[in-house]
Amino acid sequence: MTQRRQNRPPHSPSPRAADRGRVRFDRPEFGRLLGGLAAQGYQVIGPTVRDGALVYASVTSPDELPVGWTDEQTGGSYCLKRRNDAALFGYTLGPQAWKPYLHPPTVRLWRARAGHRELDRLPEPAADPPKYAFLGVRACELQAIAIQDKVFLGGDFVDPWYRRRREGVFLVAVHCGQAGGTCFCASLNTGPKATFGFDLALTEVIEAGRHYFVAESGTDRGAAVLRDLSTQPATPAELAAADRIVADAAAHMGRELDTRGLKELLTRNYEHPRWDDVAGRCLTCANCTMVCPTCFCTTVEEVTDLTGEHAQRWRKWDSCFTTEFSFIHGGSVRASPRSRYRQWLTHKLATWYDQFGTAGCVGCGRCIAWCPVGIDLTEEVRAIRRSDGVTLAQQLTA
Amino acid sequence: MRTDLDPRGAEATALDPMAVASYAVRRLKGETDDTFTLELQPVDGAARFSFAPGQFNMLYVFGVGEIPISISSDPLKPKTLWHTTREVGTVTRAMRQLKPGAVLGVRGPFGTHWPVDECEAKDVVIVAGGIGLAPLRPALYRILAQRDRYGRVVLLYGARTPADILYRSELERWRARFDLEVYATVDRAMSGWRGNVGVVTGLIGRAPFDALNTVALVCGPEVMMRFTVQELQRRGVRAQAIHLSMERNMKCAVGFCGHCQFGPWFVCKDGPVFRLDRLREWLGKWEV
Amino acid sequence: MKTIADLVAESAFFRELAPPYQQILAGCGRNVVFKTGAFVFREGDESREFYLLRAGKVAIEVDVPGRGAMIIQTLGEGDVLSWSWMVPPYKKRFDARAVELTRAIAFDGACIGKKCEADAKLGYEFFRRFTVVIAERLAATRLQLLDLYADRP
After folding, report:
1. What is the Cα–Cα distance from A82 to B276, expressed in whole angstroms?
2. What is the pLDDT of residues B212-247, one digit of tens each?
3. Same domain for A147 and A196
């Protein structure tokens, strides 16, 4: 297998969180955290409530956060509910992770004018993307960003569009205080506690009439932001409360994925009858790939104007669930829904290890909640594991 | 605003893998009914295009789109670039309409190459099917340029009909050489055809090479390659000495778009040329 | 000058056969030569012989009215031509024509049949070799049927 360089992305925070002391700041101080980031020129993007779901959008004040909201997720269903407190981060995940900000759904690669002696390629206006601070990044999402860093920055080629957006992003992680019905980050060791890749990490604590945050910095610039807040050293009791909350989330994962020998399991069961079973339910709608925080596939479209004098090259998210995806002259390589579901799942949980050294799944469960028919990849893997090695012929004669 | 695009090598590609260089069509040569060769020269005439046999370029037709095409020219003559392709889609149809002087965008070269250096002091058996001869031609040029470094060199070529034989006059020239064995066969022919009729795999059994000291380079439709591999292995050629060039849908050529995956491999950057032992467990599986 | 027995012993087809058996089979063979363009046999001919090609090239052809004669396959040095002598109705199913000067050993089917009946071991060895030829020919034909190089495979 090809060994790829495991480059850290530019300005990647170094994992030194454990070296630094954890401090506490109270809920009223939260506005100053936002203000401090804005003062440093960051556009803060955080969770908001829009169209009945959590959506990462521009946030200028804590009131714009989903105060007092929580989410309920299960196979094929997602809804927001009121909490009986005023937590700022009392939910898990919305349909989209940070992917649209770092790897946008559409990017214009370049424009060209019909030339005579040369192809007249006009460079994209160097509109630098805003300097983003991501607020409320979950552990699984940090892992998803690390995975896309490997895809776009870690190989022989670097994607300049991704790099421009990724560089300099300030990451405020929030350790999960509750696990969603479709969460299984604990199975993949990607959460619920953020352990790397953040500038700041927060635990939100609401108990005994108090509402505060236990904070730790992961980088110098994280520490600098923290220094501008009014903080106290966290007491042992406060630290214990924060740790208890995260441990409780870890213990209440809605889903579970047994990762023992996962790659080998799926590879040797490439012809397992379960693929036919899931293909009977799968609509090949591509929702799972759109909400997946690690799915990176794209296509390129040529757009011309009526004069035929101007052409644009647009890169757009694409999905391995479409038949066109694997089209070579003569037809589609993966013509059946069975092969397309299998491609997606075995890529996430088997061949991704070969390509990038980790699973391509972070256990966020979005593909379960946003599947219109509630296909649950953890259940598919379980079914294959239960009848490891069964072939269609054996099943028919059983 | 008019930008001069410097034709560049791999370094610039690494900086902006989507950057294209302008190339002008010097000549468009019809090969067979449905195949043709584009001869390209950089608009900046001084530029050289360095590539290794087996690599491919992304060719862009203004207003139509971009497709991968293997390079079929001589790597030792880097001032012109040949691409042979079949007219199968909108981009190749538009290409065939291009007139001399028309400008194309070129990105590349991309991908892995035939292990020509590894062939030294060994017999080389090249098995090509249909248009699969195009990406193998640069390897043959390289080998023939330093012919004394190799043992026996055998080209086995299969085409659909006599009229579909690619590079026919060149094949005739090669056949006339004493240091190159050329065997061609077609799947179907009318009476009067004096060449072979039958599948290209049928040529392997009797081709003159020492199986234990041979490197095999294979390119053609995937099924043809699978059967070719069986015959080569039956002759005793080891999997580590067999190299195949795979075809999958390549859009970006640098491993970002995901389209060309074949099992764990990105055909665009891990391939297109693969050593058989790396591919073996995936070859022949359905719909990979 | 090589005898038929020498040629049989050298051929890939019979090489692994025990020498006494090679001798027996050689007794059923005779040398034949076909000039370029000459028919080895025609469709519908009574099938009495098969051929072990020593040199040259033979095209197996079939005439398609309106399209002309098509070559289905060509055979060359070391190949075995014709097995219709083994199977009813013992008629040649295709035309076979020498594309170039072709030398072959023609084996008399009746003679071979007798020898094989007299010694079942010889019969087994002989037909086992023929089965390999038939299986390979069938596999190649299937591959040909795929029309791999067509626009839409």
Report:
1. 58
2. 999 999 999 999 999 999 999 999 999 999 999 999
3. yes
Query: What is the distance between the alpha carbons of residues B174 and B136, in angstroms, rounded to a whole number?
Result: 14
Using a CB-CB cut-off of 8 Å, the residues of chain B touching C78 are 206
Is C89 near chain A, with CB under 8 Å? no
HEC per residue, B212-266? HHEEEEEECCHHHHHHHHHHHHHHCCCHHHEEEECCCCCCCCCCCCCCCEECCEE
Residues 6+ apart with CB under 8 A from A269: A384, A388, A389, A390
Which residue type does A243 have?
D
Task: Check B17 against A2: CB less than 8 A apart.
Answer: no
User: Would the CB atoms of C150 and B160 count as touching at under 8 Å?
Assistant: yes
Residue C140 scores a pLDDT above 50: yes
For the domain made up of B10-110, the CATH class stated in words is mainly beta
- C1 pLDDT tier (thresholds 50, 70, 90): confident
Domains of chain C in start order, with CATH, are 4-145 (2.60.120.10)
ipTM attached to this prediction: 0.91
Å from B170 to nearest chain A CA? 27
Torsion of CA C33, C37, C43, C49, to 10 degrees: 10
How many angstroms separate the CA of residue C74 from the nearest CA in chain B? 5
In chain A, DSSP finds a helix count (H) and a strand count (E) of 15, 16
HSE, side-chain direction, 13 A CA sphere, residue A63: 0
Which residue in this structure is represented by tokens 């054996």? A394
Hey, is A241 helix, strand or coil?
helix
Cα–Cα dist B71/B83, whole Å: 5
Nearest-neighbour CA in chain B from A15: distance (Å): 27
CATH 3.30.2310.20 corresponds to the domain B117-279: no
Domain region containing A313: 262-397
C57 near C75, Cβ under 8 Å? yes
Kindly determine whether residue C149 and residue B195, on different chains, have CB atoms separated by under 8 Å.
Answer: no
A208 and A279 both lie in a single domain? no
